[in-house]
Specification:
The chain is of the alpha+beta class and about 250 residues long. The chain has helices at about 5-20, 60-75, 90, 110-120, 140-155, 160-180, 185-195, 200-210, 215-250, and strands at about 25-30, 45-50, 80-90, 125. It is globular, with a radius of gyration of 19 Å.
Length: about 250
């Protein structure tokens, strides 16, 4: 069974469970991220937004937690990797990063990026209206702030997820360089493989790791080198931002 087939089966079981628990309270359910890119490197999770008409009750939260545990048991390992936010419709209509109704009320700090992906068609509708009826488009300042948030996350997790950090740094470099954020890690790493030849081995090893083909030597290489790639990425991003500022100044003259 392919990854796409697994995602479809898990998604259907997920939305069936949501309907049973939430009833009329459920406004929409959308999958985005790697699962919505046909060319993506193997995905380790399924990113989602569930849009709610009104607040969750404690009973509904308990039942939703049971649903997620059930999906993890029924569809290992991917069924246990549904990673997302339960968001009020009133919050989803705004540009401010929303708080989830579940799991310690986590905030979707990449809200601007997620909206851009979804509005560009990189989504799977599990339930509800076309997301263009809900999600507001993001401005470049919002997107830029979210990209810097992603960079901060990478800085904190270099030794935890070196493969993710390398591939996401490729995406961050690409997005700051081109102002295109609707790109998968696979597409961005393909671009970086050609545009940044000195980092080809790093990118190749990170992609091998995502495909579960890495060796202990590969992992040691990533752990030793990911910090260097971060420093390079920060310098590259800083240059791209300065170039953008200079271009805007010239346009005003």
């Amino acid at each position: 069974m392919t990854i796409s087939q697994q995602i479809n089966i898990i998604s259907q079981a997920f939305v069936d469970g949501l309907k049973g628990i939430l009833g009329e309270k459920l406004c929409g359910a959308y999958v985005y991220g790697a699962a919505a890119f046909p060319d993506a490197v193997p995905t380790g999770d399924i990113d989602f937004h569930v849009i709610l008409k009104t607040d969750l009750t404690d009973n509904e939260r308990s039942r939703l937690e049971k649903l997620h545990r059930s999906l993890a048991r029924r569809f290992p390992p991917l069924g246990g990797e549904l990673d997302g936010y339960y968001i009020l419709l009133s919050d989803a209509l705004r540009k401010t990063p929303p708080k989830s109704q579940m799991w310690k009320l986590a905030t979707d700090n990449s809200w601007a990026l997620h909206r851009e992906h979804i509005l560009a068609g990189r989504h799977i509708i599990l339930y509800g209206p076309d997301p263009k009826e809900i999600y507001p488009p993001a401005t470049w300042p919002e997107i830029k702030a979210a990209l810097y948030g992603e960079l901060d996350y990478v800085k904190k997790h270099l030794q935890d997820y070196p493969d993710y950090c390398i591939l996401n740094l490729c995406r961050l470099i690409y997005s700051f360089e081109t102002k295109d954020v609707v790109v998968s890690k696979a597409q961005a790493s393909d671009w970086a493989h050609n545009a940044l030849p000195q980092w080809k081995r790093h990118i190749k090893v990170a992609r091998k790791s995502y495909a579960h083909q890495t060796t202990p030597e590969d992992r040691q290489f990533m752990l030793a080198e990911v910090g260097k790639f971060l420093e390079f990425a920060k310098e590259h991003i800083e240059r791209a931002c300065k170039k953008d500022v200079n271009n805007r100044v010239e346009e005003t003259l």
